[in-house]
Fold this protein.
Amino acid sequence: MQILIQIKAIVVALGVLLFILLPPCILALPFSLRIRLKIVSPAWAFGSKLMLRFGCQSFVDIQRDERSQDFKGTPPYGLYVANHQSFIDIPLITTMYQAPPIMKKEILRIPIFGWLGWISGAMPVSRSKVHSRKKVFDQAKERILIKRIGIQVYPEGTRSRDTHPKSYDQIKRTLLVFAYNEKIPVIPTSLYGTRGVINSRGFIRPGRHLGVIVHQEILPENFKNSDEFCRAVWDKVIEGYEELMVKLGPLNEN
């Protein structure tokens, strides 16, 4: 049975990549990033839903979007931050919004997926290299300040080893401080359940219950200093995670 589940997941993943994501990405390739995002975003949202439901055989029980209408355009504007538990965070987030993410360079080396991610604006970074981190930081500033295109980042830096998000003192706050200084709205996102979709051996665990909350934007001008602002953002991520855990945790106990 486990082998059949794995085969089904691979077939669905290849189908999504080749028949849902690849055609619009090829079509969008000659255009600017802003136009590319308008073309490919619906495909990413639809493909992610198919992958979660039929590839991972998971149920997305809670999808809540509390953003103001001004932040729901394509491409979205602002800095989007989320807790990080699994590679499955990527399709779960893209069911809600398609803000180009900062992600590990290794992920963008995955055949087909990496190329599609690059076309869709993903920004690769080697966290161990200072010049790579500086380059992606400068790229992120240009995206937000000049192109007015939102970006998405995981302040934990890598997946939390615990089920609970990392504490405030453990997260990377460079982009959050930048957002405060430049008066850029930050949209916290809380994810739950993705860690359990793939077990330690790399096999799909069907029947998992997932949840995502996109919180209302948090505005820098409402805070006295950057530390107060950054704490408010991360506290909201954790608050949403704990709400999802209470509601969905009992469903994932088996």
